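Annotators were shown the component list below and the corresponding predicted structure, then asked to write short factual statements about the assembly.
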Amino acid sequence: MLSRVADSLYWMSRYMERADGILRMLKINYASSQDDIQEFSWMPVLRIFTYLDEEGAVKISNNTRAVLQYMVTDRENSNSVLNIITRARENARSVQDHITKELWQCLNDFYHIVRDEKLNLELHKDDPVSILDVLIKQGMLYFGILDVTMARGEGFAFLNIGKYLERGVQSADILDVKFSDVNYDLRRTDTIYWKYLLLSISGYELYLKTYRSAFDARNVVEQTVLNDEFPRSILYSVVRVHRYFDRLKSERNKEAFQKIDFMIGRILSKVRYSTVESIMDQGLHAYLNGIKEDLYEVGNALNQNYFAYT
Amino acid sequence: MQTSELLNSYSVDPATWDEMYSDLTVRGQYRGVVDFMQQMSIEELNKKEDLAKRLFMSQGITFTVYSSGEGIEKIFPFDIIPRIITASEWKYIEDGIKQRLKALNLFLKDVYNSQFILKDGVVPVEMVYSCPHYLREMHGFHVPHDLYVHIAGIDLIRDHDGTFYILEDNLRTPSGVSYMLENREITKRIFPDLLPNNNVRSVTDYPNILHKNLVSLSPRQTANPNVVVLTPGIYNSAYFEHTTLARLMGVELVEGRDLVVDNHRVYMKTTTGLQQVDVIYRRVDDEFLDPLVFNPDSMLGVAGIMSAYRKGNVAIVNAIGNGVADDKAIYTYVPAMIRYYLNEEPILKNVPTYQLGHAEEREHVFTNMQKMVIKRTNESGGYGMLMGHTASDEEISKYKMEILKDPRQFIAQPIINLSSAPCYMNGKLKPRRIDLRPYALCGPEGIQIVPGGLTRVALREGSLVVNSSQGGGSKDTWVLAQ
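Structure shown to annotators:
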């Protein structure tokens, strides 16, 4: 496979995963904003998912509609869903002969939907949940088509490596910012707060099944970092990155493979052999930050060893 | 009924050949389509038109227009009513194009090697040497199977009496074939059953024939030669076509930056190291192909590819330097080439053409400017031409000054009254002018022309310019089996 093609597939996949994460998180935070006695603040969301400075974020953090428009359709916000989908599509466009026609059409449709001026208007005055649902569904269609139609070759491996690297980073980010918002206070027993955090990463139902009891911040950390059955946990994401990277094993690129395999293996052990206690001893923020940096390192190494073409 | 109204409102200019109507009766080949349309209401037809637009948009068969820093996606206008060619018309076109391509290919081989045709004075030497597309770098080098033109898109038009004329020979990187294929797919969707009921010949074989030909050119004798399509990249207006062809042939689509030359061999950069390339179907123009030999600023090409080509380590399709054969000034001599190389009379006629480098002919053109279209010999896509019947006096005198600066760069042709075909526009049928570009594929085993092609339409009323860059659209093109 051409290095340029591998690069584009990897980034297309990362962007699609990012868009999905942002959309779900917006939907749940919107619901949470309707369920709060105090004035709801979008500050944590703006901190994780935008490049706004403190002042810029404060300006809109209490204005739900403004935040939604900024995060979904704003052309100036380089991390808006519109711009992320545009970049995913640009990448897809340059590898159309490596993804199925159905997948390309789905992503192309997504692009046209999110660019439609009508969407921006509706976001301003209609029910935001219906609009976010339309976008989330289009994303689900993308994931479904990818799963049903794409050949399980090298391209599929790069797609999944991109997807799960992005997801691992995203879950670490969400957890970190949500906890920083309460100053890493694990004794906080505010049920609604944890409920919406879990909902935003589709982990609420699993939490109820696993822990049954009232909300405990330690359990939230355990599920989001260490539960290997939870598809948005950090452990699950790293396991997947490891699995799909393993498929790239080849005699022709042995040295690079071994180097990156070692890196991923080390992250995997680090996460797998952590406990909530060991994480807390180290400090949640330091721990999550370490994982994130390790994952970025993997991205850089892929770039140097597999995607270099210029 | 609403739709007979649709037909009644169709008024044809009596001085023009209309593809559907002859003396106010529907020609036999259009009867099936006309009957079908008559069963439909305007609402249904509008719905069909809408569906066609949506299909183009959703498949990304679009080109991007950049304005105020943001890309806007546009589709090439598509008219839902097919252009229909009868079996006998097609036979005539096919024979004519095959004959012409045979001669043009021999001309290229000759002009880059022994130059018999120049020595015998059939084509003037200065015509060839003054052509900017004549490349010394190709001299004395034998291309595989002596094939220079592998893919040709020869443009045909029809005059008021229905006679076909060759308008130009596109022998470099002719585009538009993906529209031939996609337009047909759209027709299948919007008019179910209409194609089989009308005995329309299929065009779907095109990518398979092309692939077979490309494989046969491989310099390495291996079971699976590495064939690639070379594109200038996603910002090229024909990018959709490049990716379609790569996908339909199942080969890699590469950009210049994906390739590297080492020891006169071309390699592509893959995730597992370098992999040798055997055949390149390039959609990059000659001058951008190799910065070491041609334009040194080119970012689209591959440094050293020309040396690999001359060493015979890679096949390049179409051959480099073909521009000397589809030059608008050389065009005049194609009938003479056919007589010279094949000892045959040309089947398809040339449009009469005046060389403005020739003083007498220039004088004749200058006194009849209103009846002429004047073109630059090295431009294509409808750029830089003057239509005498619509130009103002000021434009004409300015253009004359341009011509006098370098007369060799210009030719003139009498304005041909292109044939018209019905187009569906805002609930009405309107005649619009059309041309035809069939796609010919030449391989070691001969020339094959897929029965169909691209019909381009001048969508503006009265316009004779069909180029997409000048507001043209396209139609699905049917060749009937009987």
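Statements collected:
1. Chain B touches chain A through 25 residues (CB under 8 Å).
2. Residues 87-111 of chain B form the longest helix (25 residues).
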